[in-house]
């Protein structure tokens, strides 16, 4: 799963990709968490747009938003089958820019230590996602089984796109599974960080420092 991530300078770091910015500022977030308003990249006809949506998608068929816990993640293995997601794949794909994300590693005593996971070349990660315009503007992050170098931390990880693949992914004529299954795993590094990240109220740069 993916439940917390980091985004540094979302405007500056995506300006090679984005044609239009709809109200996103360049502030940094070192502890982005579900229910937050966060930047996503989406396509609108021939424009690539950076805009803010809420992390956590409530199915459109839910009678009341309060009746359903928002879905922060969508599993790659079932995303083409579940009614909540499969229609969005054909019209509402998005990409979530991130500088890295947090995952919690369990030891043999079930004690959890947060890890910060990032690209070794320090460029952005781009998570594959889906969005919808319901009562709110919402998105979810698609996850898959973890790559071999991350399996000892957690069994799941976000689907990560390379920058060069963003336009192809956002084009809903692109076959989703064919594309995703041909993506090379990203070259990721990781290190343990302070448990201060456990509290979503903590949001400062040194949260990503190795301990």
Question: Brief overview, please?
Answer:
By secondary structure, this protein is mainly beta.
CATH class category label: Alpha Beta
CATH-assigned homologous superfamily: SOS response associated peptidase-like
Proportion in β-strands: 35-45%
Q: Briefly note the structural class of the backbone.
A: mainly beta
* CATH fold call: hypothetical protein yedk fold
N- and C-termini, Cα separation: 23 Å
Low-confidence stretches: none
Give the overall pLDDT as a whole number: 93
Provide the spatial order of strands within the biggest beta sheet: 3-1-8-9-14
Counting DSSP H or I runs of 4 or more residues, the number of helices is 3
Radius of gyration over all CA atoms, rounded: 16 Å
> Can you tell me the number of structural domains?
1
Measured as a percent range, the helix fraction is under 10%
Overall number of strands = 14
Query: What about the largest sheet?
Result: 5 strands, antiparallel
CATH architecture: Alpha-Beta Complex
User: What sort of overall outline do the alpha carbons produce when their principal axes are compared?
Assistant: globular
Provide the succession of SSEs: EEEEEEHEEEEEEEHHE
Question: Helix and strand layout, with pairings?
Answer:
Elements lengths: L3 E4 L12 E3 L6 E4 L4 E8 L2 E9 L17 E3 L7 H7 L3 E6 L1 E7 L5 E8 L5 E9 L3 E9 L10 E3 L1 E2 L4 H5 L5 H6 L6 E5 L19
Parallel strand pairs: 2-5, 5-11, 6-11
Antiparallel strand pairs: 1-3, 1-8, 4-5, 4-7, 7-10, 8-9, 9-14, 10-11, 10-13, 11-12
